[in-house]
Amino acid sequence: MKTQFVTLLISLASLFSSFATAGILSPANEKNSKLIKMVNKADKNDWRTLNKAARLSINWNADLELAKQWLEASIFITENSEAYEILGDYYLRKGDMQKAYDHYFKAFETGMFTLDKKDKDRIQRKVLCFGRSLLD
User: Fold this and answer.
1) Which residues are the signal sequence here (predicted)?
2) Half-sphere exposure (CA, 13 Å, Cβ side) for 127?
């Protein structure tokens, strides 16, 4: 089932990339095209590449929905705190503070015993910051 889901996701990404390369690319589409190629070249169980591509896509404000699909696929492959944190960033970019907070909390909860201090501190700051803002 996981293999079929990831294969479907990669097929959709390939389809979108073929449309993106059909005409002249804007800088944003060119970056997105590079991310799609990066994901397509990765192993079907490479959740780290999916996370990296999604993080860059969200930071560049490129294709946010495709970034969300990559993160969902990453979590489907293996539950990982990095994907939950990036999903929090996605929801923050979309303006949904409650979902952003929920995903930051899930990232902290998932990585509590596996994250290094730097990553744990960063996620904890996000949880505290957005948790407080929801109380106001």
Assistant:
1) 1-22
2) 18
Tokens read off for 105? 């909390």
State the pTM of this model. 0.78
Residue 9, SS3 per DSSP? helix
Mean pLDDT over each residue of the chain, to the nearest integer: 85
Q: How far apart are CA 119 and CA 125, in angstroms?
A: 10
Place of tokens 């960063």: 122
Q: What is the pLDDT of residues 7-57, one digit of tens each?
A: 545 554 554 554 444 444 455 678 888 999 999 999 999 999 999 999 999
Sort residue 93 into left (φ over 0), alpha (ψ -120 to 50) or beta: alpha
Enumerate the H helices of 21-96 as residue ranges. Answer: 27-41, 47-59, 64-77, 81-94
- Say which residue the tokens 């591509």 belong to: 53
